[in-house]
Amino acid sequence: MKIINGSALAKKIKSILAIDIAFCVEKYNRAPKLELVLVGDDPHSATHVGNKKKAANAIGMECDIHSLPCHTSQTELLELIDQLNKDASVDAILVQLPLPKHIDTNTIINAIDYRKDVDGLHPMNVGLLCTSSDDAIIPCTPRGILSLLQEEQIEISGKHCVVIGRSNLVGNPTARLMLKNNASVTICHSKTRDLPYLTRQAEILIVAIGCPNLIHADMLKEGAVVIDVGINSIDGKLVGDVYNSIDVPSIEKIASAITPVPGGVGPMTIASLLQNTFDIYKRNVVK
Ligand code: GUN
Question: Quick check: is 42 catalytic?
């Protein structure tokens, strides 16, 4: 069984981007600019946003963090988004989720100019992903999953792909992306009956539910490719929804490949964010 190395691919993507950005800065006289908006003091969100900025700066992008207090009103946040939308030097905007409860997430996402919506969450990008258009900004984790499958030369077309999870950030857009790449797709979620019956049919199984030990070897099809998006902390140790030290020996006998946790899909999310930012920048500078 192949352990798919997401850290290595993320590193490769970032080094290629760094070269492309250096070339473009010479040619177009400005670097890509990503604006990160963080509301509140959730330490995990602050870490994620800090990691995104570090990664962007490391490859030559400009990146600011707009850190707003927890009591920021929806109107104040909308004003900031309006300002970033209008600023021609800003290519990409990311509002870190989740937002505090008094702010309506959909209202905020809808307010972002869809051409700067680096997360691909705006209804326009969601819609474009569902058409034959190639113009959609694809959410970062789904794009990272597709890159991993392509890098490993895993055929998607014609395969039965089972996606567990239907979130706006991962499950839904991943299912759409697999469909766009000609897989036959089944989406499973918390109300799905007889999950093992469906997972046993998956040639590609993508698990993004955030539930450790959800999937065991006896729920897999022979030769399945398993993409484990789950990141769960158990006794201070990171495990996936599938991948953990106990089950890997039995999974090894049946699956053909799996993404580990950590070091699988996780690092690809930031690499894809940087790719999305660079793609938007190119749309802006190459007229
Ligand atoms: N929170 C957790 N993951 C993400 C992400 O990919 N984008 C945003 N905006 N918020 C997140």
Answer: no
